[in-house]
Amino acid sequence: MRYSKLLIPTLREDPTEAEVISHRLMMRAGMIRKVSAGIYNFLPVGLRVLSKVAKIVREEMEHAGAQEILMPALQPAELWQETGRWQQYGKELMRLKDRHDRDFCLGPTHEEVITDLVRREVKSYRQLPINLYQIQTKFRDEIRPRFGLMRGREFVMKDAYSFDADLEGAKENYKKMYDAYHKIFSRLGLRFRAVEADTGLIGGSSSHEFMVLAQTGEEGIASCTKCDYAANVERAELKKGAGGRGPGAGEVKGLEKVQTPDKKTVEEVSAFLKATPPQLVKTLLFSADGRPLAVLVRGDHQVNEIKVRRLLGVSDLILADAGKVEAWTGGPSGFSGPVGLKNIEIIGDLSVEVMPESIVGANEKDAHYLHAVPGRDFKVDRFADLRNAVAGDACPRCGAPVSIDRGIEVGHVFMLGTKYSEAMKATFLDSKGEEQFFVMGCYGIGVSRIIAAAIEQNHDEKGIIWPMPIAPFAIHIIPVQDQSERVMITAELIYGSMIRAGIETIIEDRSERAGVKFNDADLLGVPYQVVLGEKNLHEGFVELKNRRTGEKQKVEVEKAIDHLIELVQGPRPQPAS
Amino acid sequence: MRYSKLLIPTLREDPTEAEVISHRLMMRAGMIRKVSAGIYNFLPVGLRVLSKVAKIVREEMEHAGAQEILMPALQPAELWQETGRWQQYGKELMRLKDRHDRDFCLGPTHEEVITDLVRREVKSYRQLPINLYQIQTKFRDEIRPRFGLMRGREFVMKDAYSFDADLEGAKENYKKMYDAYHKIFSRLGLRFRAVEADTGLIGGSSSHEFMVLAQTGEEGIASCTKCDYAANVERAELKKGAGGRGPGAGEVKGLEKVQTPDKKTVEEVSAFLKATPPQLVKTLLFSADGRPLAVLVRGDHQVNEIKVRRLLGVSDLILADAGKVEAWTGGPSGFSGPVGLKNIEIIGDLSVEVMPESIVGANEKDAHYLHAVPGRDFKVDRFADLRNAVAGDACPRCGAPVSIDRGIEVGHVFMLGTKYSEAMKATFLDSKGEEQFFVMGCYGIGVSRIIAAAIEQNHDEKGIIWPMPIAPFAIHIIPVQDQSERVMITAELIYGSMIRAGIETIIEDRSERAGVKFNDADLLGVPYQVVLGEKNLHEGFVELKNRRTGEKQKVEVEKAIDHLIELVQGPRPQPAS
């Protein structure tokens, strides 16, 4: 394609509304433009990348035996009422009425529509298993749409739904999708990890999230350094001793109160007492469904409120304000501790249970206790896994230490079981002629979100660095002096040869200063740049720049075309000699 | 693909809700299923055809220099308020509110969004011309959605929008699109005609509709049998004498009243008087913005109310009821005529003007006049083109007779001028640095509707007959005795070879009776069926059936593969000898 014939409105400056790198770079590279909050136009370069992602997803879904269909965005309320989600879904579901005042929604997902289709068209176990997918526009009225394509209100998803005669079959389909997702994200050229998203109501792991690894990711991922275990830090199950016993051992002295004037945070207290955070125990006070609750975690750990809620079966868990802390402990906040607490349920993380001794707040201003020992100096009603995983925790599967990465969720495979088929009375006849509910799975990929995630993972201060499989073009030809006949003829020659070889190539044919051309090229992030300048050409060379490594290489003009083709398509088969 | 692995829920019976052939056949062939009125699931076979249509459209748009983008379905009300269409569009526009109570609509078209994009991103004449298109889901809340994909509420369109610096450029873009549409519909394998949809506010023809020809089409099309003129019968311009002078000439006798007891219709009167309909003049009485109006057309012609309205500049044109006819003419309806009419404006079609004499109603029960002559026996205030074209009318361009076809509108090219750019203040700077409004064109293709139109044009009593370019598969392999090892091995051999040759092939691998297999194959309409039966194989043959012609041919087994490849892909290039 010719640069001048494409709408690529690059921006010099970061747009003020863009908070994250991928959003900034997609705006700056002229890939997308906002229509309304969370709603975007894909411009030509953005759509090229979207199409490439969709193509790879489609190929691997077909390869895994899924059949492509296309369901509508408009969904009648009746179907959602059957599963109860019309009421449950809340404001994220965009609703509207048609001219006859009938209720519809814009699908954020298609479990109801697909289950309705399958219950009408699939009658016998002989027609099973079946896996139907689509690549389609979805709608979700996010309360705070942001980060460009990362969290939009209208976005492109691949969603697949499998239907099986029994759980065993459903697990096979799940495994197929799990494997297909590995192939998809590998082929997209992304570093990613599949993490356990939830563990087994049905037995075994019934849900995995696929995360693209990026420093800027919203999610923390704990991955075993030895086995293939990986989980969201908030969901990783931690066993007793996972975080080690902490420092200190041998003979434990008696409880000792020390002054810690104005030292409130873990860092301040441990520095002041010449200790380390893992020697402290933090005491956090919550109102749990209205009742006072103290949660103890090691100084270097973070309380995981989801785990606390699940343990106690409470729905409202609110951190206590200063007034409540004072009323419940008798001391100001910042100095809370478990010693002497009364009429408060105290729960502790497993890592606290194994600490020989610890430093804790004394429930009075400017005071802490040293050598506090659970059981001896304070009681704990229950010990349980109550915290997020951190680097070095023991893998719950093999015991090796885990490392922590950050990631962006781009895919999710989920075992639905019979949740939807029971709600919608979707049955088939088994081999004995008896009615059975379909056992279902659902499998999503955020097709448009992948673009943002890919950029979060692949960029530098100059712009995007596309992985080849999803790059809008493979080669960017940049004639520096566009007034020079020699430069332009050579550029066009190379361009023509690339097009004939089927290599997606963009040629910079604008009359712009060299600096503008180079900046836009780095911003666009095409993997290889071919720079043609008078001087180099005079010496018989073109310059080949690898956008990722920044490496520049002089290639003889007459060898340039073969070299580029080999670079993109791999070595040509040699004729038999 | 294997038949057993695809969801193709064929139906033996016509579904009761389907009124037209294409809807019936798409339901019966398991291509689509209804979700709600005018809203459908595309099942695997339906989606395959949709994708093929979209691919051809996309290739020709790219070839014509248009750039693909993707705009959102959700559009903010503010943009539609700028053009006034938020108010004008009425109930066909599906509207909704987001969680913050802001108004949105689901786009039935994208003039507002694209004009907003271009006014923000295109600043200079140097960036022009530009043509942006998308293939995307559209929404229109039809009052009576029907005919399956023909008139749905959610459907797939290709819409393109061109922006030019001046009218001359806009005309060039229009011409490019007009030519591209010819290529698209030719490549789709459809018989079609481009018809003038409206004539020149801007000069020249500024709108063309592309019609797929089919007996069942809703629109009538008049096409010249000599030149390339074609127009909707309602819009075709007819010149004086276009319909000939009608029979009768020489000396004209004086007005003569005759009895025509109970003969009211043209057919009844002409049969009774041993005349032909072209010898009669029909007198139709209307209330035109409340005032009485008589319109005269030849007995074999139909009044075109659009032309009448346009001539008189009236908005309300209502056929008079029996009471009004009696009051205005003094006679019962069925016997109206122009002779003796008072206080009524009388207009006549051009073909009436050239009739030497005619038979007309006498404005009294059971009576007509013979030998009525305009001017002599009755007055006509104005003669003008007031009727639909019929077969044999003279082409307004070259004078040769026109023929009449029926068609289904599948594409529309339209010169918008500055309607939207003025309303939305969308300007660029011209070469003199002055602000100018963009001159726009818009170009639509009903991608999903094309499928229905293709079926209306290509079917027989057994099912669909796909044109090869949009067929879901090129070849349908049907092993008759699926218990026979010889039959199945040969079928699989041919299937494997087709797949390796890149030919889209479906193999019938279900355990069904031969009759079921043959019926489903004819219903699905794949262009070539390869039938493998024990008897033929024993004799060394397979049977090749052409779905369109029904022709069956015996092909030697060992030549079958080469023959099929050549049939689909054309002859192989011969190696140089």
TrEMBL record, chains A, B:
Single Gene Ontology MF annotation: aminoacyl-tRNA deacylase activity
Biased composition (Gly residues): 241-251
Biological process, per Gene Ontology: prolyl-tRNA aminoacylation
EC number: 6.1.1.15
Keyword terms: Aminoacyl-tRNA synthetase, ATP-binding, Cytoplasm, Ligase, Nucleotide-binding, Protein biosynthesis
Region of interest (Disordered), ranges: 240-259
Pfam families referenced in this protein's UniProt entry, alphabetically: HGTP_anticodon, tRNA-synt_2b, tRNA_edit
Entry's localization field: Cytoplasm
Gene3D superfamilies in the cross-refs: Anticodon-binding domain, Bira Bifunctional Protein, Domain 2, YbaK/aminoacyl-tRNA synthetase-associated domain
Span of the signal peptide: none
EC primary class: ligase
InterPro entries noted in UniProt: aa-tRNA-synt_IIb, aa-tRNA-synth_II, aa-tRNA-synth_II/BPL/LPL, Anticodon-bd, Anticodon-bd_dom_sf, Pro-tRNA-ligase_IIa, Pro-tRNA-synth_IIa_bac-type, Pro-tRNA-Synthase_IIa_type1
GO cellular component assignments: cytosol
Residue ranges constituting the Aminoacyl-transfer RNA synthetases class-II family profile domain according to the UniProt record: 33-467
Catalytic activity: tRNA(Pro) + L-proline + ATP = L-prolyl-tRNA(Pro) + AMP + diphosphate
The keyword Nucleotide-binding is annotated on this UniProt entry: yes
Comment on protein domains: Consists of three domains: the N-terminal catalytic domain, the editing domain and the C-terminal anticodon-binding domain.
Subunit organization: Homodimer.
Described purpose of this protein according to its UniProt entry: Catalyzes the attachment of proline to tRNA(Pro) in a two-step reaction: proline is first activated by ATP to form Pro-AMP and then transferred to the acceptor end of tRNA(Pro). As ProRS can inadvertently accommodate and process non-cognate amino acids such as alanine and cysteine, to avoid such errors it has two additional distinct editing activities against alanine. One activity is designated as 'pretransfer' editing and involves the tRNA(Pro)-independent hydrolysis of activated Ala-AMP.
Family of this protein: Belongs to the class-II aminoacyl-tRNA synthetase family. ProS type 1 subfamily.
NCBIfam families: PRK09194.1, proS_fam_II
Protein name: Proline--tRNA ligase
Organism listed in the record: Candidatus Manganitrophus noduliformans
